[in-house]
Q: What sequence folds into this?
């Protein structure tokens, strides 16, 4: 667990570095894809970096997360290696999944990332189960479960929320409400004002925060983590944010206006945090520039290193289906 | 090993109890498995022996509890989920098929899901179409799932203990008509390896391969056929995945006749796979008659007892098919 992004120059740098690494990673991926150098599909979280970063900063190293198809930020927030992530997306043997999973299935068990998930809401019951394992063993670890607004209309969300509630499981449900489930807006998909209200139906607290304010996300998740760790059960934290890019590569943005996108771009979570830390005197403009260039360099070298790795090897695919005893 | 005669349900319970005594990571979750003792009485007194944490009653929430088992397994536990009727796995298919089955492969081997999902399958209880299916072929068709169908009390225990040890998701389909049947079962916590077919009976003329409750029906049919001078082998694959074909191919090569029996509808069923494997092997050249299948009708299981009985293979149907197979031989 790190202190609040605003607690010290060190934690401010950590938050800024994590957000910039996430953004530069995804910009690199977007660029590689556009140039035909990366295949498959991926879902970018550009514009949403504060929610992943703020939430992960409220966790200890031995806490776990479950992630989503839009999970690069969660991975990086939890401390994943950019080289292995990029290698996976570039279909390399050295990737996190040895080229078997791609962007939607990166896991890093060593850093507590139990996996991204290609099925909307698929990770939510899994998070409850991992929390149950911690509870059964008497460990004070928690699970942060990331999902989007769309997932909360899946049965899996409701079943997992109820199990977590009745068993007081140490899980924090983090709904990154980016306003659209692919093309379907939250205005159309919900008859309630805030998704966080859904928590009331299961008997645990729900809170809505500005998902583009990394400090607000941190504070809400830190409070939820404290509740979970002390045996009081789950919390639903709704972080309201916005994805600047399309849902995936096929998106032509027919369902939203340029004005709307421009408005949200003006609420850039990274620019806003840079402004705030400079105003508060936590970081100087030079220090901020330094963090930016470090992040860019880290992503550049990740692309170079990953590119030079061997391609994923089909030789032992049949042996990879089952784990050996 | 000391053996005594106990029921199939008792054998399952004994396996769970012994696994839980030996390993703190093992726990069970499911609907009404606590004080109630399980819809089919399988968990019985386990709740009183191990308490509500490890014999964990759940709400009616199949997707949630199977998902919780996947997560607990990923986090180092060894969960055993009981789904009250195998038909209800349909409520949990995402977690079974998209999650449990694929995680190890999809994550490049970085994690595995050592969980067991037990569920009663099959017809014969008058519970009609949504409580009587045999869906084993669905699971066997998904890479990443092991599929077990114990046909005896001894196997119900030994295969379950092996399934609990296995580092992969294992679907154990227990036939509900078998729960009250009895047989000799060793007291020790023995393992019956997954992927070893059992030759239940050896004969010279014809090989029957049968699964689940059809194994005992095939053995009964074999007795009748013996009286007619037809000497029959009965082989029980025991696990659909992994599938041990060698004893089947060897036996069919010897008898020259294959009769494949399953309770599930025949269309695209497990015995179609067996037939294909036989046809793809040199055993094909040893056949004295075309391969024959006896399967459930391609219909939902009906309610009325006479309708239900006619929907799935009975002993007389297996006998008749064997007789036909002998007549067709050149």
A:
């Amino acid at each position: 667990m790190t202190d609040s992004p605003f607690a010290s120059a060190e934690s401010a740098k950590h938050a800024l570095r994590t957000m910039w690494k996430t953004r530069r990673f995804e910009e690199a991926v977007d660029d590689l894809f556009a140039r035909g150098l990366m295949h498959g599909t991926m879902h970018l979280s550009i514009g949403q970096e504060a929610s992943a970063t703020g939430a992960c900063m409220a966790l200890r190293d031995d806490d776990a997360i479950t992630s989503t198809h839009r999970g690069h930020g969660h991975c990086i927030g939890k401390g994943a290696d950019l080289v292995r992530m990029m290698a996976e997306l570039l279909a390399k043997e050295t990737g996190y999944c040895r080229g078997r999973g791609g962007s939607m299935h990166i896991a890093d068990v060593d850093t507590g990332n139990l996996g991204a998930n290609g099925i909307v809401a698929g990770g939510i019951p899994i998070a409850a189960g991992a929390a149950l394992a911690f509870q059964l063993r008497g460990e004070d670890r928690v699970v942060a479960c990331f999902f989007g607004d769309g997932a909360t209309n899946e049965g899996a969300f409701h079943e997992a929320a109820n199990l977590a509630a009745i068993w007081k499981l140490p899980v924090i449900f983090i709904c990154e409400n980016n306003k659209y489930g692919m093309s379907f807006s939250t205005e159309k998909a919900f008859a309630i004002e805030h998704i966080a209200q859904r928590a009331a139906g299961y008997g645990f607290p729900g809170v809505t925060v500005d998902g583009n304010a990394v400090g607000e996300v941190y504070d809400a998740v830190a409070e939820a983590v404290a509740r979970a760790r002390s045996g009081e059960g789950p919390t639903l934290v709704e972080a309201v944010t916005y994805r600047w890019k399309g849902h995936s590569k096929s998106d032509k943005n027919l369902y939203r206006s340029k004005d709307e996108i421009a408005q949200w771009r003006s609420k850039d979570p990274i620019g806003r945090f840079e402004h705030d830390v400079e105003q508060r005197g936590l970081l100087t403009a030079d220090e901020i520039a330094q963090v930016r260039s470090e992040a860019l360099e880290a992503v550049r070298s990740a692309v170079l290193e990953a590119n030079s790795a061997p391609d994923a090897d089909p030789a032992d695919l049949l042996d990879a289906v089952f784990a050996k005893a | 090993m000391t053996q005594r005669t106990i029921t199939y349900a008792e054998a399952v319970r004994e396996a769970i109890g012994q696994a839980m005594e030996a390993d703190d990571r093992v726990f069970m979750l499911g609907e009404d498995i606590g004080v109630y003792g399980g819809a089919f009485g399988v968990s019985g007194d386990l709740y009183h022996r191990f308490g509500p944490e490890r014999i964990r009653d759940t709400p009616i929430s199949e997707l949630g509890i199977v998902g919780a088992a996947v997560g607990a397994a990923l986090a180092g536990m060894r969960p055993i989920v009981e789904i009250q009727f195998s038909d209800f796995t349909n409520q949990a298919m995402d977690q079974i098929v998209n999650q449990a089955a694929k995680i190890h492969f999809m994550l490049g081997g970085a994690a595995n899901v050592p969980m067991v999902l037990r569920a009663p399958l099959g017809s014969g209880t008058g519970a009609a179409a949504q409580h009587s299916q045999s869906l084993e072929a669905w699971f066997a068709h998904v890479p990443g799932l092991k599929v077990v169908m114990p046909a005896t009390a001894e196997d119900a225990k030994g295969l379950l203990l092996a399934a609990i040890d296995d580092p992969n998701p294992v679907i154990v389909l227990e036939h509900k008509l078998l729960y009250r049947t009895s047989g000799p079962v060793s007291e020790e916590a023995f393992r019956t390896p997954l992927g070893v077919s059992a030759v239940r009976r050896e004969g010279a003329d014809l090989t029957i391969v049968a699964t689940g409750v059809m194994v005992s029906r095939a053995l009964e049919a074999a007795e009748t056929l013996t009286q007619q001078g037809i000497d029959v082998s009965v082989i029980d694959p025991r696990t659909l995945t992994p599938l041990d074909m060698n004893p089947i191919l060897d036996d069919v090569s010897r008898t020259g006749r294959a009769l494949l029996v399953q309770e599930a509808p025949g269309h695209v069923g497990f015995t179609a796979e067996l037939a294909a494997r036989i046809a793809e092997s040199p055993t094909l050249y040893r056949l004295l008659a075309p391969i024959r299948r006896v399967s459930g009708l391609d219909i939902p299981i009906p309610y009325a007892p006479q309708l239900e009985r006619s929907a799935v293979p009975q002993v007389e149907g297996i006998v008749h098919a064997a007789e036909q197979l002998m007549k067709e031989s050149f």
